[in-house]
Write a structure and sequence with these properties.
The structure holds two protein chains of two kinds. By secondary structure, chain A is mainly alpha-helical. In chain A, about 75% of the residues lie in helices and about 0% in strands. In chain A, strands 1-2 form a two-stranded antiparallel ribbon. In chain A, helix 2 (about 10-35) runs antiparallel to helix 10 and helix 11 runs parallel beside helix 13. The longest helix of chain A is centred in the last third of the chain and has 30 residues, at about 280-310. Chain A is elongated. By secondary structure, chain B is mainly α. Chain B has two domains: about 5-280, ABC transporter involved in vitamin B12 uptake, BtuC (Orthogonal Bundle), CATH 1.10.3470; about 280-370, Winged helix-like DNA-binding domain superfamily/Winged helix DNA-binding domain (Arc Repressor Mutant, subunit A), CATH 1.10.10.10. Chain B has helices spanning about 5-25, 30-50, 60-80, 85-105, 115-120, 140-160, 160-170, 170-175, 180-205, 205-220, 225-250, 255-275, 280-305, 310-315, 320-325, 330-340, 355-370, and strands at about 130-135, 135-140, 345-350, 350-355. Chain B has a two-stranded antiparallel sheet with strand order 1-2. Chain B has a two-stranded antiparallel ribbon with strand order 3-4. Chain B starts with a helix and ends with a helix. The chains are: A mainly alpha, B mainly alpha. The interface between A and B is large, with 66 and 61 residues.
Chain lengths: ~375, ~375
Amino acid sequence: MSLINIFSDYTLRTVALGSALLGAMSGVIGTYAVLRKQSLVGDAVSHAALPGIGIAFLLTGSKNIEWLLLGAFISGWLSIYIVNIIIKHSRVKYDSALGMMLSVFFGLGLVILTYIQKIPDSNQAGLEGFLFGQASTLLKRDVIVMSIVGGAIIIIVALLWKEFKLLSFDPEFCQVSGFPKEKLDLILTTLIVIAIVTGLQTVGVVLMSAMIIAPAVAARQWTDKLSVMVILSSVFGGLSGVIGTIISSSTRNLPTGPVIVVIISAISIISLFIAPGRGIIWRRMRDKKNKKRLNRNIILNNIYNLSTEGNGTQGYSLEDLSISKGDFNFPINTLEKELENLETLDLVKVKDKKWYITEKGINEIEDFRGGLGE
Amino acid sequence: MNVQIEIQLIAIVVALACSTLGVFLILRKMAMMADAIGHTILFGIVVAFFITHDLNSPLLVIGAALTGTLTVFLVESINKTKLVSEDSSIGLIFPLLFSIGVILISLYAGDVHLDTDSVLLGEIAFAPFNRFVVNGVDIGPSSLYVMGTILIINIIYVSLFYKELKISTFDPGLAMVLGISPGIMHYSLMTLVSLTAVGAFDAVGAILVVAFMVGPPTAAYLLTDDLKDMIFLSGIIGTISVILGYWTARIFDVAIAGMMAVMVGVVFLLIFFFAPDRGLLSIMRRKKRQKYDFAQISFLMHVINHEGAEDEREELGKNTIHEHLGWNKEFVKDIFNNLYSSNLVYIEDDIIKVTEKGRDLAISNAEEIVNGI
C-alpha cells in the first residue's frame, strides 16, 4: 500500500484528492483566522456543526452531502452569531461564550443523533463518521462539491485580497479608510465556517479546528509575507491531507481525521523549531553567537582599558583580569578559555603567563566601541 | 436508591465539582483551556490504560489528570516562544494529543475495553451499573464515590486557598507582591480541573465536562458581582440544568448527558435575557428609558431657548415643532403628551409654553449634564 496505489486505485485517488482539496482550502482560510487571533473559532464552529448535520438528516431523510453541509453551515454559523450577540450585549468574555456554545451545541448534536438512532429504518449509519471523519466514504460527487466550494473560497479571497489583508493586520485603519469592516468581518467569518463545514466529512467535528490552525501556524514561521504564507499554508494543509489519507487507508480501523491532524501538527512543530530566522533552533544559535561575541568583547575591552590607563605595553595575569573592574566577572577557567580564543584570532598575545592586547585587538575594540556610539 | 435518583445524583455531583472550579476558569479567561484539557485527557486515559490495564485503577485517574497539566505546560511553552499566539497554541496542542489518543485506541481496539465514543461522549445511563462494593455490601455506584471525592477535594482547595485564588485571579501583580505565586495557583487549579475532567469523563464525556465547567459560572457571572455568590449560584444553576436535562431526555428518550448540556445553554440564555440588572431585556428597557428621559429634557430646553423670540410661532408651533427638533412627529406627540400630563408644558394660542415646574426641571437637569462634563 503506498504511492503507487494512489494512481491505480480509483477510490483512493478520489479520497486523496478530496483530502488535498480540504487541506488546501482550510490552509488558505486558516491563515486569516490565525492572524486575527480567532483560531478557536474553528474549534467552536466544528463542534457546533454537529446538530446541523443531524437536523438536516431528520428533515431531508437523505445523506446527500449538500444537505448535510448546509445544515452544518447553518448551525456552525448560528453558534458564532450567538457568541457575538452574547459578548456584545453582556459582560461575558469571548472565551467563556465560545466554550459554552461549543459544548452546548455539541450536546444538542448528541441528543439529535441519539434521537435519529431510535427511528426505525432510518439508515442513519455513517452520521457518526462526522465525529472523527471517514475519508474512505468520500464519493466523486463529494469531491466535486468540495472543489466548487474550495474554488469559490479562493476566488473570494483573491478578489478581496487587499481588504482582508487590511482587516487582518490593522482593523482600525481598515475602518477609518472607509472599508465596510463589519461586512468584511462577516464575509471572512462565513468563509471560515464554510471551510470547516466542508472538511467535516474527512476530518470530523472534533478535530477540524486543527486543519484551520496548524497549517497557518506552520506557514507563519517560514515567511513574513501574507501571499507566501497563504500559499505555503495551503501546501502544508494539502500535503498532510494526502499523506494522512494514504496512511489511514492502508491500515484497518484507522480514522482519517486523527492521522491527518498528527501529520499537520508535526509539520507545525518542526517548523517552530527549524524555520530559518524565526525558529527556536535558529534563535538559540543566534543567542549563543551573540553571547560569545559579547563575552569576547567584554574581556578585550577590559584589557584595553587597563592598557590605556597604564603604559600600554604592560601585560596582565589571569588574576589581574578576573578581579579587574567591569560589570562582568568571569570565573577564571572561562576567562582563560576566552583569552585563548582571542589569541587564536590574534587579538591578544600571551607571554610569561601575562596577556597583552595586540594592534589588531585595539582596532577591533575601538571599532566595537565606535559601533556602540561611544 | 433507585437508578433514576442515582443518575441525577451523580450528575449533580459532577456539575457541582465542575462549577466550583469553573468560576475561577472563566474569571481567568481560561475557558478554552478547559476545553483543551477535556480533549487531551483522552490521551492520558489511553496511555495510563496501557500501563495499568485496569480502567478502575486510581493510577489511571492520576495519570490522566497529569496529562491535563502537561497540556497546560505544553501550551505555555509554545506560547512563551512568542512565535504563536495563545489561542493558536491551545489549538495546536490539544488536537495533536487527542489524535494520538484516538489512533492508539483504534490500533488496539481489539485488546482494549475502551472506545473513543464512550470517552468522548460518556454514557451516564450506564454509570450506576458499576457498583462500589465493600465487604460484599453494595453501597452505591462507584462513580458517585469517585466524583464525590473529587468534589470534596475541590471544595477544600477552594476554601483553603480562597484568598490566594481571589487575589491571583483579579490582580496577579498584587498577588506577586504579597508573595502568592500566580504560577503555583495556576498550575494547582489546572491540575484539579484535569482531575475533575477525568473523574467526570465516563459519566458525561470529555466534551460535555466543558459545558458544566463554563456554562453555569458564565450564567452566574450575569447575576452577581460577589465571588462567593457566584460560586453558590453556579452550583444552583448546574443542579437545575442537570435535573431539567435528565427529565427532558427521559421524555424524548435521547442522550442524557447531551440534554443536560443543552439545558445548561437554555438556562444561560434565559438568564442572559431576563436577568434583573444585566439581562438583555432590562438593559434595553433602561436604554429606552434613558433615551426617552433625555428627549423630554431636550424638548423642554428647546421651548425655553425659543420662548419670546421672533420665530416663536414657527419654532414652537404645536404643528411645526417636530420639524425644528428634527424628530419623528409621532415621537414628538408622545413626548408632549407625557410632559403635558405631568404638568410641565401647556399650549397657549397654538404655541407650546413651559410651566415653572418644567423650567426648573429642565434647567436643573441641564446643569447636571454640564457639571457632569
